[in-house]
Amino acid sequence: MPEFFEESEEEEDQLPDIEGEEVVMRMAPYPSGPLHIGNSRMVILNDEYVKRNDGKLILFFDDTIGSKEKKLQHYAYDMIKDGLDWLGVDYHEVYYKSDRMDIYYEYAEKILEKGEAYICECSAERLQKNRREGEECPHRSQSVEKNLKMWQAMLDGAYEEGEAVMRIKTDMQHPNPAFRDRVLFRICNREHPRVANKYHVWPLLEFSWAIDDHLLGMTHILRGKDLVMEDQMEEHIWDIFDWDAPEFLHYGMLRLKDVHLSKSEFQEKIRTGEMSGWNDPRTWSLQSLRRRGIQPEALRDFILGFGMSKTDIEVPASKLYAENRKMIDSKANRYFFVPEPVKITLEGDIELDEVEVPRHPDHEERGNRKIKTAREVLIPKKEWEEKQGEEIRLKNFCNIKLDGKKGVITGSGRRDLIKIQWLPEGLDAEVEMPDSTVVTGKVEKGMSSVSEEELIQFERFGFVKVQGKEPVFACYAHS
RNA sequence: GCUCCCGUGGUGUAGUCCGGCUAAUCAUAUCGGCCUCUCGAGCCGAUCACACGGGUUCGAAUCCCGUCGGGAGCACCA
Questions:
Q1: Domain assignments of chain A as residue spans, ordered by start
Q2: Does the domain at residues A101-203 carry the CATH identifier 3.50.50.60?
Q3: Is the CB of A133 under 7 A from strand B?
Q4: Distant-in-sequence, close-in-space partners of A465: CB < 8 Å, separation ≥ 6
Q5: Is the C-beta of residue A204 closer than 7 Å to nucleic acid chain B?
Q6: pLDDT tens digit string along A276-330?
Q7: E strands in A260-299
Q8: Which ipTM value was assigned to this complex?
Q9: Strand B within 7 Å of which CB atoms in A 41-80?
């Protein structure tokens, strides 16, 4: 406990303080899949700020209908909560955008009445062209009455998808073309996982957020810098309603080296069977990290170490592994795992019985595990290939010189040789690697006393988290 | 192309707002050495950075201008 205190004290300097007596923040995941390591920055930062300021954190499912590419998934809601629980993120209230459609409609009407928005029947192409060229379309100058009528028609289903949208009036000469008369509502007939086909006019994020951030009394909004334009849009809408603006905080883009994260892509690969599910380590989902034995505290430290800078960063996954290793090294008991075993026969004088190996080199109190010694032993294929003709030590047993499938015993005293793991025989075992390939091999029989889900280290192989024991199946965390 | 953001060692990060206390912090990585019957952990040491060019100033990583480089947005996605 004192260590934890020290840690967080240190970490405190990494985040800039925020102003305000009361802090209310929200995190808004889009439920197209479970949270992955990329999303964890958003939730951890929110959680951290709220905890440090004794504030309130709202979990707000940003489940408007989305695009065809990013599909909402009914199971994602629970997986997101599951991930947050695991991460130790405490939220105090839960909301769903899909529950609040009537509220958005109400304010949509108000904004039309104020003459600050209009219903546009231009095609998407036309709309984009006008935006690029800064030209106003004829719909922009329609009367309020006409707009309200068309809006009602939208709600009544008189338009098909793409035939009409509600747009806000900004300034078609706005220096940022992207800002010009953005779309606030559009028609979509796709089925929603929570409210099915109840609605077919859906708000876009800038509008729904402008309304909810105000209604729910948000004091600070934390978002990636990919969403900075949304700040401006929200501020514009708040101005129209004469509402006070919360404070915005931004962080830069975070990428893992050599890792490409895309939920819609994973969704597709899972659908086609190319990935086994969201447990697949390649998804980097929080669930898959838990399965590998990554500690939530390690992930939190990893993320907090980046602070709040707007700099874009690319970090190797080994940085996360280093954090994790610190936390699990003393917990994880040691066992022998022989990947791709090759059987060799020992020749020469040796007394056969059993050897004792400590469960943990730094914790003798955990006792020893016993391994029977035998003439025929299994060693890893890698060393068998690389160390031919050389002298090596079978750890805690004896020294041998490799000669094909023979091991000529050269003594049993400890010597300064490379020491490898070995087994007389063993239980079948499989280890799933981070790239989802599987390494097969044998583990010592003592493994049968290991509990499921236990985090252990296979000596000279890496840390793994046990998933099952018949046969032994484990997920590789890192070296 | 347009709008905005960012540029400190291999990778991240502190310091930049309020210029001197910094011959620039910490972590990780790398390389040595010690220790250890694991290629794990631990301990000790070493290497390595203020993008560039001007300006302001007694003094600039810190302020100003310019250049270059990187990123994000420019969707009827979030």
A1: 2-100+206-322, 101-203, 333-478
A2: no
A3: no
A4: A291, A292, A293, A453, A454, A455, A456, A474, A475, A477
A5: yes
A6: 999 999 999 999 999 999 999 999 999 999 988 888 899 999 999 999 999 999 9
A7: none
A8: 0.93
A9: 62, 64-67, 69-70
